[in-house]
Protein 1
Amino acid sequence: MLKQAEEFMNRFFRSTTVGLLALGTVFGSGEVAKAVSFGTSFDSAEPSLQELLDDITVGGPRIDTVNNQTGFNLFTNTASGGSVATFMFEFGDYRGINRFGIYNSSGMKAELFAGINDVSDGASVFFLENGDITVSTIGFPPGNVPSPSIQQYNAFGNIFGFYLETVEGTFFTENSRNPGGVQQAVVYQGNNQTELGIPGRQPGVFTDNEYIIAFEDLLRSIPGNSDSDFQDLVVMVESIKPTTPAAVPEPGTVTSLLVFGLGSAWTLRRQRKKLEN
Ligand SMILES: [Ca+2]
Ligand SMILES: [Ca+2]
Ligand SMILES: [Ca+2]
């Protein structure tokens, strides 16, 4: 009896997944039109974001830096009330200066990585019940290994975007906060298939609660000012999920369908877990 129920749920789950994939395609085609176009680095010796991701891909399909852009810009924590960020790459003249962190709707910033941080360094964010957050940042080899730091931020909340603070200003994952409304970051979501090995870390599957946030540190609203290589500071963040479908404007129906689709997938997965237990 239990086996039958499980089989039914499995079949149901599979068909829902197919439906979701179809939805994703509809949604994705809108995104592709909006996807950012990469430029060649001003320093021609720098690898592209595509090359960097290909280099650390140890299994599964490669991440397509153009077609896999999501448009997600605001996030929240998952159930544990904590999130972890891992520094992946930085290639640019301002690599020793750029600062990276999360910000909330009132513009309050919480720094995760300072100028001294580099590849493999980690930052944990603890989202407390009273709305405060605590950020602890730890340096790891390779590269710099700065001393650990802990910082508390009061009344930060748990809805946030990501920022990059550089000599040309502060850039945000929400385009509307950037000068000229331009896009300064691209965001990729894990696909549960690609295996990545970040230097200094054990390799593992790029799961769907993990996101790669890749920033461009030169202002793109001034023609010719930016090389748009989007590998000036790149971070992987896990145990987060988007609060909004995506920054892609319209179509509202597709958006709500996607939310509904994801909602049912979660419910089903939970139900399936219960059946398995
Ligand atoms: Ca660069
Ligand atoms: Ca390091
Ligand atoms: Ca750049």
Protein 2
Amino acid sequence: MAAPPFAADDPCHAAVLAELTYRLRQVFCTQEATAVAMPGASRSGIEAVLNSLIEPDDRVLVGVFGHFGELLCTLAARHGARVRRVDVEWGQHIDPEMMIQAMLDWRPKLAALVHADTSTGIVQPLREIGRACQESETVFLVDAVLSVGGCEINMDAWGIDAVVGGMQKCLGGPPGLAPLAYSDRAAASFSSKPHSAYLDVRRVADTWHNPQPETELPTPMLLALREALRIIDEEGLEARWQRHARAGRAVRAGLDAMGLQRFGDPAHAAPMITLVRVPDGIGDLDVRQQLLEQHGVEIMAAFGPLRGQVWRIGTMGTNAALASVLHVLASLDAVLNAQGFATPRGAGVDAAAEAFV
Ligand SMILES: Cc1ncc(COP(=O)(O)O)c(C=O)c1O
């Protein structure tokens, strides 16, 4: 990232962008989709896809099982869509049949879902919904901001037309670009005149493939993404998914052994984030503050209706490692006991170490 920026018509630009296309296709598991990165936070990529697809009053069906499904509804409505929702209680996944039935009833232009919702720690099955989209006129958009690099997200095999990832989670990079990919089928449905000229994926793809002297691309971020993707390639994508799975298993085993209650359907638990209930009588903020100040460990508060009731423990990228898991659990053990919640001391780290196989 500290390398001097290069100009858009510098020959090394084309080489960096071609390498990024190749590597992004790998992480999204697609042979031929157009793969680019939108400058900005991950939601800029989601907005860009929505802006490119939605014309006024288009029907958009959104599955909502957490905060980021809500975000999809908000963004689709802001881009002029008529939004219909399929809701389930936070902590559950959406039964694919519910989504498919709603699609058959309403025939939306676009169906949108989050793959793994960071607010609930639930992974949503996508394959059947993708197949149903492919068999109909519906374009399928998936928010894989949390999941990409941490578990399988298979664009081609699951019938996904557009997918947006995040740099700063399981890809292990800094925030600032939204990697995304879209199929020819999605491109065929793009509006000829999206209302935002900037959030236009076709424009991004055009400048990606034909850099113009007057366009600046954020070269430090592109180099950061390239490095993150090279590191993933060195590890191996499947090995990385397995490392995240092991870390998730270890956290869950450790929390259970400490006598804590996890939140959400365990059968659909995301490997890269684990939600655990704040025990009765224990202060959400006190524990998080003590963890941070005394142990250098940051766990996250919850969103919306879960705020104050649940903590979120991320094991993403380099933190999907036994050392990080043991550090978090040992620290939490110490802080909880200091706050008056007695755990079987040491049981959490022992169980985690055993489960990290
Ligand atoms: C599943 C999911 N989608 C979207 C976002 C939005 O990402 P950003 O804050 O980078 O826009 C997040 C951020 O945490 C997320 O976890």
